Amino acid sequence: MTKAAKLAYRPFGLLSGIAGGLVAGAVFKQVWRRISDEEDAPNALQSEYPWREVLLAAALQGAVYAVVKAAIDRGGAKAFERWTGEWPGN
Q1: What superkingdom heads the lineage (predicted)?
Q2: How many CA atoms lie within 13 A of 69 on its CB side?
Q3: Residue by residue, what is the 3-state secondary structure of 6-68?
């Protein structure tokens, strides 16, 4: 990958990372609502939830984030390659 392509991809990658985080948060919120019948997932400092539920929420959030981010990063890399002819990871 040329230096020019690396510089061109940097803002593109940053924007796709932000978009990925926003999409992942929305997806996780919907998934959590469906499996728990609650609006928000518990966080580690909420004492009214048992360890099991807090850890399940954290694991699920991490998995959803990783999958969504990977999908958006990969899609962004493919689009960048179509536009420039260069794969951003090389």
Answers
A1: Bacteria
A2: 13
A3: HHHHHHHHHHHHHHHHHHHHHHHHHHHHHHHCCCCCCCCCCCCCCHHHHHHHHHHHHHHHHHH
List the Cα angle 74/88/4 in 5-degree steps. Answer: 150
Q: What is the per-residue pLDDT across 13-69, written as a single tens digit (0 to 9) for each?
A: 888 889 999 999 999 999 999 998 888 999 899 999 999 999 999 999 999 999 998
Q: What does the block give as tokens for 46? A: 């909420």
> Environment class of residue 3 by beta-carbon count within 10 Å: exposed (0-12), middle (13-18) or buried (19+)?
exposed
Burial of 15 (0-12, 13-18, 19+ CB in 10 A): exposed
Burial class (CB in 10 A: 0-12, 13-18, 19+), 30: exposed
Q: Which residue has the tokens 């390659």?
A: 81
